[in-house]
């Protein structure tokens, strides 16, 4: 069984959309958003996947969500059938599994993917959890987003050195760092140097939940990408649909 986030109470967050971020930006995909996370980013735009009532971890919005309304349990087969309904017409079916932290549900994902032969599978992860041995060969692309100091997470929890080393040597892994100030880019540079993360696999993405904030930060962020050889990624879905679920 899978613990899924919801769009509305009882309706799981499974939807078709263009990928809005990172190495696959602009590609038609089906998205599966899972519930639960082992980190607590204070600016997280999907806090409804983890910041439930009774969770004392900090978030800048200060909202504690009802678990009953924001989490639903579905079987792997039921989930796969919905995914195929939404994306079966795509010439190159692509599933992006996001969260929360999807790799916390590795064994259930193996069962899910057994129902989706021929699909290209991407996982969006905070990079702190290793894929299980059974899941790893089923994934075509890992979109790894390590959380910097401004996320509010302790470094020993958010940036485990052994995992960063492992992802840096994994050719299927692309790195996406959320950046709010130029100081955040200095931390990216330090992490890249320590863990030998290739610059050509690093994307910088402005932190923001509205178009105006993203565009303002992208002005100076684009200059830093040029200076250090990183790629800039937008948040396309924010411009198209705003900060809403199921987009």
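^ structure tokens above, recovered residues below v
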């Amino acid at each position: 069984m899978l613990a899924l986030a919801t769009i509305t109470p009882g309706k799981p967050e499974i939807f078709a959309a263009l990928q809005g971020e990172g190495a696959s930006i602009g590609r038609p995909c089906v998205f599966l958003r899972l519930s639960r996370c082992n980190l607590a980013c204070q600016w997280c735009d999907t806090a409804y996947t983890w910041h439930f009532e009774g969770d004392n971890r900090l978030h800048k919005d200060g909202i504690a969500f009802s678990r009953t309304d924001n989490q639903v349990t579905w079987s792997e087969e039921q989930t796969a059938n919905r995914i195929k309904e939404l994306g079966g017409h795509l010439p190159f079916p692509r599933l992006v599994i996001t969260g929360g932290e999807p790799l916390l549900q590795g064994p259930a994902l193996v069962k899910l993917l057994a129902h989706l032969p021929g699909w290209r599978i991407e996982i969006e992860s905070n990079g702190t959890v290793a894929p299980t041995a059974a899941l790893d060969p089923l994934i075509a692309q890992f979109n790894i987003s390590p959380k910097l100091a401004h996320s509010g997470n302790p470094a020993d929890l958010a940036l485990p050195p052994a995992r960063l080393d492992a992802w840096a040597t994994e050719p299927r892994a692309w790195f996406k760092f959320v950046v709010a100030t130029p100081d955040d880019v200095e931390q990216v540079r330090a992490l890249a140097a320590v863990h030998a993360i290739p610059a050509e696999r690093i994307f910088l993405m402005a932190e923001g939940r509205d178009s105006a904030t993203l565009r303002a930060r992208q002005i100076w962020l684009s200059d830093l990408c040029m200076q250090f050889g990183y790629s800039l990624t937008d948040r396309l879905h924010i411009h198209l649909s705003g900060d809403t679920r199921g987009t």
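The chain has eight helices and eleven strands.
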